[in-house]
Amino acid sequence: MSTIPTVYFIDDSATMREVIKIAFRRENINVVACHDAATALVEIETAKPDIVITDVIMPDKDGYDVCQHIKSHPALAKTPVILMSGVVNRAVAEKAFAVKADELLRKPFQPQDLIARVKNLLKTNGAPVPTPAAAANAAVALSSIFSAATAPMPPRSVPAASAPARALPAAPAAAPASGPAPPAAPAPVPAPGVPAGHALPSGSPGPFARAVHGAYRLPGTGRS
Fold first, then answer.
1. Three-state SS across 71-90?
2. Residue 115 shares a structural domain with residue 13
3. Are residues 122 and 16 in the same domain?
4. Is 101 within a domain?
5. Dist CA 194 CA 173 (whole Å)
6. pLDDT of residue 60
7. Do residue 104 and residue 14 come from a single domain?
8. Which residues of 7-33 are buried (b: 16+ CB within 10 A; e: fewer)?
9. Which of 115, 138, 161 is the last residue of a domain?
10. What is the DSSP string of 89-154?
């Protein structure tokens, strides 16, 4: 048996396959990722992996079919199988128990949760448990797709405030112009309906504007 455990991971999501491969690579565990159950079962019968991890919902065969096939196969019956499901309830748990699954994991999950379960099953099954990967492999950054947290942006530097502008001297006061005084303003023309000598107060609206707002009364009628 190889000193590096081999895990088959079956999921129709390309993102899931890539994330799990990166996560297990850091743990010095070889992962073979398959996009469908039919292809995976053909390879599993030849490769005889240490553990099989499969999604429950898949296009052709589902995870229950995969688990049942492995557990009923004479050469693969002792291979641990982990089922992944987006919904975990009593019906799902009972079906997983019926096909003799070793673990049932609810999605989404953190990769470290899956790694811990795999290592525990490797110990139980007598397979070699890998030591942590070398520092070079540990430096490989795992894309955190399950958590959408991003690194905080560094604070932007604010330029120093410039010196205040100097105030310009005030212009000298203009000398009074010589000559005749300007003509006086013409007398105001009374608005319609306003007696002579009684102009509207300054700032009052004109007759049309007042009529629009219902405030202008027609002269001599006593009604609006």
1. HHCCCCCCCCEEEEECCCCH
2. yes
3. yes
4. yes
5. 43
6. 83
7. yes
8. bbbbbeeeebbebbbbbbbbbbbbbbb
9. 138
10. SHHHHHHHHHTT-SEEEESS--HHHHHHHHHHHHHHHTPPPPPPPPHHHHTSPPP--SS---PPPP
Identify the DSSP state of 8: E
> 61: domain range?
6-138
The vertex-187 CA angle with 184 and 190, nearest 5°, equals: 165
**Is 116 part of a structural domain of the chain?**
yes
**Structural element, H or E, at residue 55:** strand 51-55
SS3 69: helix
Task: Kindly state whether residue 30 falls inside one of the protein's structural domains.
Answer: yes
- 94-126: pLDDT as tens digits: 999 999 999 999 999 999 999 999 999 998 876
How many CA within 13 A on the CB side of residue 119? Answer: 14
Domain assignment present for residue 80? The answer is yes
**Cα-trace Rg, the chain:** 43
User: Could you tell me if 19 and 84 are in contact, meaning their C-beta atoms sit under 8 angstroms apart?
Assistant: no
Mean pLDDT calculated for residue range 41-49: 95
- Where does a domain end: 105, 138, 171? 138
Query: Would you mind telling me the total number of residues written for the chain in this entry?
Result: 224
pTM of this structure: 0.57
Q: Measured between alpha carbons, how far is 75 from 83 in angstroms, rounded to an integer? A: 20
The pLDDT value recorded for residue 29 is 93
Domain count, the chain: 2
The whole-chain average pLDDT of the chain stands at 73
CB-based contacts of 118, cutoff 8 Å, min separation 6: 5, 7, 24, 29, 51, 53, 82
The vertex-131 CA angle with 113 and 1, nearest 5°, equals 100
